[in-house]
Design goal:
Radius of gyration: 21 Å
CATH topology of the largest domain: Rossmann fold
Number of domains: 2
Length: about 350
């Protein structure tokens, strides 16, 4: 059997993930065997990418894995954490492992939409208007401290994130493929920040919360930074490999019982009483949108792909659900008064609904 690729390191032993509780693995067939072979072949580069990132970034394995899930599905990622947790460094390092265009936009209160999308400039020599493209025209775009820019600038990203296109003047330009927005925000500093509107939050496939490193990881970080030269990641993959991997990810098998499980999980956040969760009804203002259902299925596929499996299990859904759902479930003032978060609601739903 093939080794399991774990982001943050190379292959680590023998694959042990098997379908349990009703069996989520696809039935044996020639097509299933071909899909498994394709997963093994197209996921081979992930170990090299994770190893290069680990040269620069100490720990933060969960964050790296979830950014890879976004890269493998084309889903934009919002990374939230206090300053100094290597959010920006991780995104820049990942970009260094790809042979792709990369742009960083530092969001500030005085930023204008044209600074992001581009604008029309009058050329005095030719007497004509020409269009200057903004930094959005790149494969990977780092929107650093996105909540520091006003709503007008944040809304300039909506068309790019959803439609993969940018309109400058009266001309619409397609964005390069792949195109991925990786945004960071600081949750503790409120002065001079602008909370992202729910419509924009819903465009992010994942909301990744980054925690402090452990004592061991922080000591390793201290030792590494004592050197004179900063480590740097090398290019180990291309956009063509990413696009091929995406096609395989979209083909990974999801059993009909697992599909029903995904739908009921999201439905339970909208109509908790219908699922025997009446105690949650006063705590939920809005449940997950239909985009949550689609993102949960695709993120679960990518999670299985990272583990070199050609099928999705309920464990894949549980592993990624909080990142997909935490910014799509809105709690009431009553829940906030009781210090109940969206993650608490999601956890309760998972505890109550039966696993297929």
């Amino acid at each position: 059997m093939a080794p399991t690729v774990v982001p943050g390191g190379a292959a680590t032993g023998v694959a042990t993930d098997v379908a349990t509780e009703g069996g989520a693995a696809p039935p044996p067939s020639a097509s299933a065997e071909a899909l498994e072979a394709a997963v093994l072949a197209e996921s081979a580069f992930l170990g090299a990418v994770a190893a290069e990132v680990a040269k620069v970034v100490v720990g933060q394995v969960a964050m790296v894995e979830r950014i890879l899930i976004g890269l493998l599905t084309g889903g934009h990622c919002l990374i939230e954490g206090v300053p100094g947790l290597a959010k920006t460094l991780t995104v820049k390092t990942l970009a260094q492992t790809l042979r792709a265009s990369f742009q960083r936009i530092q969001f500030t209160p005085d930023l204008l939409p044209a600074d992001v999308t581009g604008t029309t400039i009058y050329n005095m020599h030719s007497g004509q208007f020409t269009q200057k493209r903004g930094p959005l025209f790149a494969n990977l775009v780092l929107a650093d401290e996105i909540n520091r820019a006003p709503a007008k600038v944040q809304s300039a990203l909506l068309e790019a994130m959803q439609e993969r296109q940018v309109t400058i003047g009266d001309t619409t330009h397609p964005l390069p493929d792949p195109f991925l927005v990786l945004a960071t925000q600081n949750p503790i500093e409120q002065e001079g920040t602008f909370p992202l509107p729910e419509a924009q939050l819903d465009r992010f496939m994942l909301l990744i919360k980054v925690s402090y490193p452990s004592a061991t990881e922080e000591r390793a970080m201290l030792d590494r930074m004592a050197g004179l030269e900063m480590p740097r990641a090398s290019e180990v993959t291309t956009t063509e490999q990413i696009l091929r991997a995406r096609r395989v990810v979209s083909s990974i098998y999801i059993d009909h019982r697992v599909r029903d499980y995904i739908v009921h999980l999201v439905q339970a956040t909208r109509r908790p009483r219908d699922y025997g969760l009446g105690e949650l009804a006063p705590l939920i203002e809005y449940g997950g949108s239909p985009r949550a259902t689609l993102c949960l299925a695709q993120a679960a596929r990518a999670h299985a792909f990272l583990r070199q499996r050609a099928y999705v299990t309920p464990d894949d859904i549980k592993a990624i659900a909080a990142d997909v759902m935490r910014h799509r479930v809105m709690v009431t003032y009553e829940a906030e008064a009781e210090e109940i978060t969206a993650e608490d609601v999601i956890r309760r739903v998972f505890e109550f609904l039966p696993v297929p």
